[in-house]
Design goal:
The protein is an alpha/beta fold and about 230 residues long. The protein contains 9 helices and 5 strands. Helix 5 links the parallel strand 4 (about 120) and strand 5 (about 155).
Length: about 230
Amino acid sequence: MNNKAVVVFSGGQDSTTCLIHALQTYDEIHCITFDYGQRHRAEIEVAQQLSKKLGVTVHKVLDTSLLNELTISSLTRDNIPVQTTNSSGDVPNTFVPGRNILFLTLASIYAYQVRAETVITGVCETDFSGYPDCRDEFIKTLNNAIELGMDYKLHIETPLMWLNKAETWALADHYKKLDLIREHTLSCYNGIKGSGCANCDACNLRAKGLKAFMANRTEITNSLKIKLEL
């Protein structure tokens, strides 16, 4: 096993799957959850419960409420309805500008302090909501800037980057944690655990991926194993 990794952990499907995957690879895991005054702030408590359930001993919750003051998004303003679908191709109103820039930078600073050489995030550009800060190009560019700015060798790892949602479900199933992800994570923008509100974009993506995985389990699992060489 490798040594230390810092996991950006929201308690949702993607970050929890990344945490489960990381626990098989690293012998010391630090989880960081960010409190930015998000609409679905119930995710913070869910993240704390999940990290304990999975045996993580170091879990930090960082106050980043300044982000709430600076950004206008349906996730930071209660008076803006959460967008249910994004068929236009435009950036959805659930996008929080600068969120991943801030979160990954802070997680990297923390990694520097604890001498971890890996920061793990569950971003993905294969099957996602259209957020520009989930793209592989962005992650690689930020990674390079952080290394230059801190003069420290650090890798931002994105295990889900090229997986679709069905394959992300398959990864949880590979580690025998499918039910844990289904019942105990919170991806819903309206703050409802498990299957969620069944109306927001996050819930729609999650449900669509699960349906695809359950309908074609063997083929999707084989696709996952080829991509990740499990």
